[in-house]
Amino acid sequence: MQKLAAIKGMNDILPPDSARWEWLEGVVRSLMARHAYRNIRTPIVEPTPLFVRSLGEVTDIVEKEMYSFEDRLNGEQLTLRPEATAGVVRAVVEHSMLYDGGKRLYYMGPMFRHERPQRGRYRQFHQIGAEALGFPGAQVDAEIILLAHALWEELGLKNVRLELNSLGQPEERRAHRTALIAYFEQHQDQLDEDARRRLHSNPLRILDTKNPAMQELVEAAPRLIDFLGAESLAHFDTVKAILDAAGVAWSLNPRLVRGMDYYNLTVFEFVTDQLGSQGTICGGGRYDYLIGQIGGKPAPAVGWALGVERVLELLREQAATVPALVPDAYAVVPDAAALPQVMAALQRLRALGVSVQMHAPVTAGEGMGSMKSQFKKADASGARFALVFGPDEMARGAVTIKPLREALEQQEQSLADLPAWAATLQSAR
Average of pLDDT values for 325-337? Predict the structure, then answer.
């Protein structure tokens, strides 16, 4: 039969690499709990109109990248989620979650976009995000930026810079849009095909072009921040003042517009120079009009999302220390006849929080294997200790605990006293 393989750009995550993912997710869960953010999980498949309405019909995501299809049973138009914010907002609206005040939420999971796979950019990719819904104040913009900054510190990431901009309010963007169109119309001969297509539908996105031939033109374009009124500027100034007080460095990037249409006021990105063209590892901003666009009672919101693959790639680039996921102990069992008693003892240890890997043969009928081969596998497992359930130990109702990584004396422990050893092991973590 033909050998089947994963879809291009949709990757398996295998041990031991999956341990890095688990570690990152664990750090995030702990950090979110300390900031009082609660987990939300939304479906991978959503109605296509949700993304058309939230992201904008002329965005690259909607025009080129979404995996959309028709449900064969009822004809409904469905899409694999290309990002999570729209689904979170849909869930908040559908379940009236803001009836008793604002909510701080976080999520993690796979997203899907039909792109050319490259380093840090895949067709199935994973995001972790935080959303604060129902809070209008600039202090919440700063809070959520500080939340991301705290994550980099906990992960040990270096050389990640914060870029800020403000998109103001819709009427300010409209005035800027008019000036932007007039400017680019005067230089149509310098626009590439993509920019000409967006000139009258979404000119703000031209500022985000990656075309080197257009960089000088874009640098000289009218700046949105010059069109902001007093309230928008005051909001932005408050965000910057809080970041300054917290000692978080930032730089103004007037070309920062983000890829979704739903943003207003504060937008931001965390960027590194170590991942080439995929240097944005986290981005977000305020989106005060999205809840109303999706059909809920208008309410303010702000959030961010990070790319898990990019963060893990940056950790590799910086040789950051990621704890290995290895067992505490490896059970060496020379005689299969002892397995019922051994496995009962191991279950007691596991119930007490000790991670134990039991030796098992990989070929039918070969027996348990020699002590030498079992010790080799115990060493290869990365375990700190070997638990030796030999015939002599079994006859005495005991186990020999042999250190594999540390210069400690081996000891014999009664099976009945294993809880005491487990407690000592736990206290030394």
Answer: 92
Annotated binding residue 331 = no
Domain encompassing residue 363: 329-427
**Cis peptide, bond prior to residue 16, ω within 30 of zero:** yes
Q: Any idea what the CATH number is for the domain that residue 401 is in?
A: 3.40.50.800
73-111 tens-digit pLDDT: 999 999 999 999 999 999 999 999 999 999 999 999 999
Are 21 and 140 contained in the same domain?
A: yes
Residue 5, CA atoms < 13 Å, CB-side half-sphere: 4
84 is in an annotated binding site: yes
User: Taking the alpha carbons of 39, 40, 45, 51 in that order, is the dihedral positive or negative?
Assistant: negative
Angle between the N-to-C axes of helices 418-427 and 339-351, in degrees from 0 to 180, rounded to the nearest 10:
40
Q: What was the pLDDT predicted at 132? A: 98
**415 token code pair:** 């099976």
The arithmetic mean of pLDDT across residues 158-181, rounded, is: 93
Answer positive or negative: Cα dihedral of 352, 353, 359, 360: positive
Was 25 annotated as part of a binding site?
A: no
Residue 51 lies in a domain: yes
Our count of domains for the chain comes to 2
- What pLDDT does 324 receive? 81
Does 364 share its domain with 308? Answer: no
172 is in an annotated binding site: no
Residue 236 has pLDDT above 80, yes or no: yes
Any known ligand binding at 262? yes
Q: Is 258 flagged in the annotation as binding?
A: yes
Give the dihedral sign, CA 81/82/84/88.
Answer: negative
Alpha-carbon distance of 28 to 15, in angstroms, equals 20
Residues 160 and 252 in one domain: yes
Residue 294 sits in a domain whose CATH number is: 3.30.930.10
Indicate if the pLDDT at residue 229 is higher than 70. Answer: yes
- Is residue 41 marked as binding? no
Looking at the predicted structure, is the pLDDT value of residue 259 above 70? no
183 annotated to bind ligand: no
Say if residue 289 carries a ligand binding annotation: no
